[in-house]
Amino acid sequence: MAPAQKRALITGITGQDGLYLSELLVSKGYQVFGLIRGQNNPKRDMVERLLPAVELLEGDLGDMSSLVGAVNYCQPDEVYNLAAISFVAFSFKQPEHTGNITGLGALRLLDAIRIADNGRGQIRFYQASTSELFGKVRETPQTELTPFHPRSPYGVAKAYAHHMTVNYRESYNMHASCGILFNHESPRRGHEFVTRKITSAVARIKLGLQDSLSLGNLDSKRDWGFAGDYVRGMWAMLQQDEPDDYVLATGETHSIHEFLDLAFAAVGIEDWKPYVKQDPRFMRPAEVDLLHGDPTKAKKVLGWEPEVSFPELVTMMVENDLQVESTKVPRQFAPPTSIVR
Is the pTM of this model over 0.70? Predict the structure, then answer.
């Protein structure tokens, strides 16, 4: 008899990670359910177009009853909690909302699974933790054992969700794992994030649609990888016999300066300084200066390796935004959009 088809529930399915993870799970033969907030969610049509095999359920991390209903309805083998108020700058403006959804939302979902699973350990849970947990870093590179010192309401809320996941794992026989993912980007990244803000602006500057780009701190350094690589690690965590926590990172660190170098060079602009302005409005009240992950454990235990390099990632994003933005230029005036090699 053929094994039963696995079922997975994904929160945050409209984000870049949710889309890539859904595609991965569908390719592996899963029946995938996605939790989506609101009847008129503007991203619903996009998800249905890209992922016709995924069944969307209405639910909200702020509403316990909707989570219990979703878990009971789809009877998942695996639950991936990717939903969060994830834009760090926004978390400073609405810290209470961030704590309610990003922190307490994870607790509500854990409790919904605990109720449905009833101590059997049959529903496996993945919590999307983040390198923002490390904040004011105590050591470099950062590992699973590096102490947390978050520097934003988002990071603090994620720390609560992380520790609560560990607590439920230890208290209720739950197969619950946390992926401490360092910055991961893609052409599907939201425009509010600095990487997509840069690549979109570069494309618009190249096409004559925009004159300049305003940014905050240009000196911060991050460990950037490709989101499509990182969802493979999420899935691999839930295939292990025992739950655990893992850092997913490239093991490299690059500055905003370096990202700008590569993005502008991809469209043939060698000196980006005339186009970039620093604006104090985009400075964080408390900055995270350096994030540099050590993925040794994930490589050894999960067999996980990032495949897309930092230069390839930047080029991929610029190419995508050139295609997107070129549709806004009248054809008779549109300059060539090819990447300079």
Answer: yes
- In angstroms, rounded to a whole number, what is the distance separating the alpha carbons of residues 45 and 42? 7
| Other residues' Cβ atoms within 10 Å of the Cβ of residue 303 | 10
Residue 199's contacts (CB-CB under 8 Å, 6 or more residues apart) are: 263, 314, 317, 318, 320, 321
- Residues involved in catalysis: 130, 132, 154
What own/partner pairs with CB < 8 Å and gap ≥ 24 does 45-49 have? 46/14, 47/13, 47/14, 47/19
Q: What is the pLDDT of residues 158-200, one digit of tens each?
A: 999 999 999 999 999 899 999 999 999 999 999 989 999 999 9
Nearest-CA neighbor of 176 among 122, 244, 115, 109? Answer: 244
Single-letter amino acid, residue 341:
R
Question: Which residue type is seen at 91?
Answer: S
CA distances from 292 to 134, 149, 219 (A): 10, 14, 14
> Would you list the DSSP string of 198-264?
HHHHHHHHHTTS-S-EEES-SS-EE--EEHHHHHHHHHHHTTSSS--EEEE--S--EEHHHHHHHHH
Order of strands across the sheet with 55-58? 55-58, 31-36, 7-11, 78-81, 124-130, 175-181, 245-248
Query: Tens digits of per-residue pLDDT, 231-288?
Result: 999 999 999 999 999 999 999 999 999 999 999 999 999 999 999 998 777 766 766 7
- Distance, CA of 273 to CA of 276 (rounded, Å): 5
Question: What single string gives the DSSP state of each residue in 62-80?
Answer: T-HHHHHHHHHHH--SEEE
